Amino acid sequence: MRSDELPLSRAVVDRGAHLRDEHHLAAFLATSTTRVVLVREGRVPVDGTGALVLSTVADARATSGRTDEDPWLLLGVDDEIAYLGLRVAGSPDETTDLPREGSPADRLVHATTASTHAASSRSDEQHAHHAPPAAREAVRWASPREIGAALPARDAGLVTTAVALDAWHERHPRCPRCGGPTRVTQAGWVRACTVDGSEHYPRTDPAVIMAVLDADDRLLLGHARAWAPARYSTLAGFVEPGESLEHAVRREVAEETGVVVGDVTYAGSQPWPFPASLMVAFVGRALTTDVQVDGVEVELARWFTRDELARAIVDGHVIPPSSSSIARALIEDWFGGPLPHTTATF
């Protein structure tokens, strides 16, 4: 597993932290090449082919529906093109005010001359020129959970950052010290208290996620009580205060399944902005194999060989994690390649 290749870790746009001030933000808002990622309650606009729909500053303002100060988010700068996020009010089910496919210039903004983005650019150009017009017109709101794996690297990084910042702003309108209102500063990356002057920054909550293997190289998967029937994934949990990542792996596995884990090896990481997690992946080696689920978070858990998991997926007895998740990458790393498709209907 390579972290830089995970669906929501493929950020290639320079975040431009040194440009997060009112002067540069005003300049970007006045520049015709600036493009905007609209974000509404954790979702972004995509067309009927699943491509991200970018807006001009003027179109984004017309769509936002905000009566307060425009909550602009500087996502980064790439090839002299600034990318901003704009938080949009309303329900993500509303589509009447969404931009359409955009002008040819909006599509061309995806085509970069930088060699590091060549593959992404070719994908964007093919997507733009070969998609049926009707498909490009069908704009809707979509979550990175759904579209993250299919987006080109640049768009995946922009969307992940925009959704993460939107979630933080939505949940932190007031100062945690005095309860006073806060205002957005530093191009969306800081909230300053209007009462005591304290500054507050976006939070990220580390969570561990682990492929637990036994001496026979079987994989431990669990089914959470809150999930749809047949949904299985690797075990995961938040890191507690004063706890190392490795200790969190052992504690979570023991709490949820009763399995004792010994050696723990780092595998990779991926942001998971739902609302603010950083998923840190490990491979854990089990010292015991007796499974006793807690019945609170995890309802079922069992060991799988590769053949057993393949048959269970094909037969529809196991629904694996989405392709956007690091859990899927952990499982496919162990499996030795892509998981099979199911023949079942749900």
Automatic annotation (TrEMBL):
Pfam families listed in its UniProt record: NUDIX (PF00293), Zn_ribbon_NUD (PF09297)
Hydrolase in keyword set: yes
GO molecular function: metal ion binding; NADH pyrophosphatase activity
A GO biological process held by the record: NAD+ catabolic process
InterPro entries recorded: NAD-cap_RNA_hydrolase_NudC, NudC-like_C, NUDIX_hydrolase-like_dom_sf, NUDIX_hydrolase_CS, NUDIX_hydrolase_dom, Znr_NADH_PPase
Gene3D superfamilies xrefs: 3.90.79.20, Nucleoside Triphosphate Pyrophosphohydrolase
Superkingdom of the source species: Bacteria
EC code(s) of this entry: 3.6.1.22
Biased composition (Low complexity): 112-121
Chain residue ranges for the region called Disordered: 112-137
Domain Nudix hydrolase: 202-327
EC category name: hydrolase
Keywords from the named record: Hydrolase, Magnesium, Metal-binding, NAD
GO cellular component, one term: cytosol
Cofactor entry: Zn(2+); Mg(2+)
Similarity-based family: Belongs to the Nudix hydrolase family. NudC subfamily.
NCBIfam families: PRK00241.1 (NF001299)
Protein name in UniProt: NAD(+) diphosphatase
Protein source organism: Cellulomonas gelida
Phylogenetic classification of the source organism: Bacteria, Bacillati, Actinomycetota, Actinomycetes, Micrococcales
